[in-house]
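Protocol step 6 of 9: fold each sequence in the batch and record its C-alpha cells directly after the sequence line. For illustration, a two-sequence batch is reproduced in full.

Sequence one:
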Amino acid sequence: MGYEVNSPRIVESIYYECVPVIIADGFVPPLSEILNWDTFSVTVFEKDISRLKEILIAIPMKRYLELQANVKRVQKHFFWNAKPVRYDLFHMILHSIWNSRLNHLQTSSS
C-alpha cells in the first residue's frame, strides 16, 4: 500500500507519468538534494487530507500540465537499467552518496 513513509508508490507514479501527490508531513523525498520536487509533485499536509479533492481540483490545468511535463523530464532519474545509463537511478544514487559524504566531510572539518 502507499500509506507508509517510504512507499514505492511515488516512483511508480513517476514511472506512469503521473504527478505524485505526497501526503506526509516532514517527508524528505528521494533525491531531494538534487531534484526540486515542487516542480513535479504536489505536497498536501496530513491535516488537510479531508480537503484533498478540493486541493487537487484547485490546481489550474496549466500548472498541472507543467507538473506532468516535469515528471516526464525527471523520469529517467528513477529508472533502473540492467546496465547503468547516464543519469539513471544508479547514477543518481551515486551522486546522492557522494553529496552526503561531501557534506559530512565539510561539517566535520568546520
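Sequence two, same batch, same settings:
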Amino acid sequence: MNGQHPQAIRDLMPITQLYVSVDAPTPESLEASSLACLKHKGQRTVVRLTVAKGWNSDVIGGYARLIAIGHCSLVEVKGVTFCGKSDASNLNRELDALREEGGENPLPEYDLACKHKHSCSVLLSRDPDDPTKRNFKSLPSWAVFGAEEEGFDPTDNRHRKKKRHPKYTRFDEEGIPTHDTFDEPLKEEDIAELREQMKQKKREVGDASTVTEFQSGEKRIEDASLMFRGLVVIR
C-alpha cells in the first residue's frame, strides 16, 4: 500500500501483514499520519523504501524518523537494481546502494535479520523482545544476515546468462592482439600466427582502409589493422 493514503490504511480490515511504501523522507513530503496509523493496527506491519546512492542516501535519517513513528515490525530496504540506461531516467550503476556499503545504523532498535544479494535488499526487524522477531529463529542458515550464501538457497540451480566478450583485450601499435579474452598475455607463437594472418589480409585489401558501398546504401569498410578488434567470444 502507498504511504500517501492514511485513510485507506485506517479503513483496511486486519490482514496477515500490512506492507506500506515510504516514498519520501520528511513529514512534509509524505503523509506522516499514514505511518502513525500503523502503530495502532495491532498486526504485523512492514515498511519498505528504496535507497539510491547519491539520490536519497543522504536523507536516511529522515526515513528513520518516519519509520519510528509507525513502530513497524519490519523494514525492507531495497537498493537500486540497474536494468539499463533510459532517456526517461538518469539512474545509472553509480546509484546502486546497499551492495558493500556500511555506516552507522540510523535505526538502533532494529537488527539486521536477513540479506538477499540478488535483489539487493536487506530486512530489518525490531529488538528481540518484539514477538515478530521470533519468526526468524526458524530461518535456514543461508537466509540469515552474514551467511556466505547471501540469501541464495544452495539447493537451487543458479543460471548465469552467457555474454559476449572481446576475444582480445590488448593490441600492439599494428593492431596485433597481445592479450586474450581474460587479459592474459598470448604466447609468442600465437602472436606470430596472428601477424601472418594480418599480412595475408593486407595482401588482399592493402594497407589503407577501403570502403565499398552497395546499392542498398550499406557500406563495408575493410581495414586490415582492425581485423581482430571486433571479434568476440561467448562465455
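Proceed to step 7 once all outputs are recorded. Observation for sequence two: The CA atoms of residues 76 and 90 lie 24 Å apart.
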